[in-house]
Amino acid sequence: MKEYRIVLLKGDGIGPEIVTQAVKVLNRAALKFDFRVQFEDALLGGCAIDATGVPLPQETIEKCKVADSTLLGAVGGPKWDSQPGGNRPEAGLLGIRGALGLFANLRPAVIFEPLRGASPLKPEIIGQNLDIMLVRELTGGIYFGERGHKTVNGAQAAYDTEQYSVPEIERIARVGFEMAKKRSGKLCSVDKANVLESSRLWRATVARIGKEEYPEIELSHLYVDNCAMQLVRNPKQFDVIVTSNMFGDILSDEASMISGSIGMLASASLGSGKAGLYEPIHGSAPDIAGTGTANPLATILSAAMMLRYSLDEPQAAQAIEDAVAAVLKIARTPDIWTEGLKKVSCEEMGDLVCNLL
Ligand code: NAD
Fold first, then answer.
1. pTM passes above 0.90
2. 143 assigned to active site
3. In the CATH hierarchy, which fold is given to the domain comprising 1-111+261-357?
4. Among 4, 69, 153, 187, which has the highest number of CB atoms less than 10 A from its own CB?
């Protein structure tokens, strides 16, 4: 029987509550689909600062490096807001992504049919079964480029630089193409090649990889401003989008908001191996921590992504996603609750997903 070792970084605020529900669902999926999961806790964020003085203890890095994958809740909260920048809980988050060499961020923007009303877009624009996968480069570009202050014509100025090397573009392009291969066979690469030199290299490199390695994939290119517009004008035209760090940062938030509900959105960060870091896109929600009302579905869906992209258990992933779609028709946590449906706690929601599995 296949056995997977998963590190749990429960983190702060609602983190422990939502990860506990995802663990329950993973255990149920393991039973149904005949595999075993072994869980190990490690510290990240505020809880790590309290226990060890730093947000990312070396022990956590070591545990994640040898695991088959890592599931993260969320980190941060007012208790640690006075920590100096490099020692804040969020620094632990950037640190673990860097330490594990995670260069690709996958952000699905999915609308579950029962939640169509939560989208800020009109139903006729959303259409049926909207499901976009945004692949964002995570460790290069302007967020990591040369930066500084200087004096220009006697005035203070500041600058940041966008730089991408060919190997950096090639590896993220391949993640995009592979994703397109697993889905509809369509990939849209987003850049600003009409203005930026780095984008011209991006476009030429993605086009070459497409021609040489993925001739069966239908590749298109869009300028980022046009893409931002198309996402709200006609989102159905997209399946997989691949883009740079900064453009992906902005577009992934735009795309995810089409689904209208922060408690439903999963994400994954991948490196060159199979292991990844899976987490909901929302934060630690300190305002509702401990009340038992947090929505665990984004974390449960992150666990489903882990089964699909890191653990080769696509059937179990699909079954969890189907169970989530089904549960939304009968019960919801307060953040997405609507008249006529059962209002349930975080724990009850986890139980319901397990039962529907
Ligand atoms: P947040 O996402 O934690 O919360 C925003 C709002 O959404 C809050 O009203 C919250 O109650 C609600 N919400 C979020 N997740 C929910 C869920 N699963 N169920 C129900 N409601 C939910 O963002 P914030 O308030 O800006 O940040 C709070 C803390 O989280 C800060 O310390 C921030 O730095 C941290 N943060 C962490 C991550 C991460 O760990 N990846 C991401 C974003 C923010």
1. yes
2. yes
3. Isopropylmalate Dehydrogenase (3.40.718)
4. 187
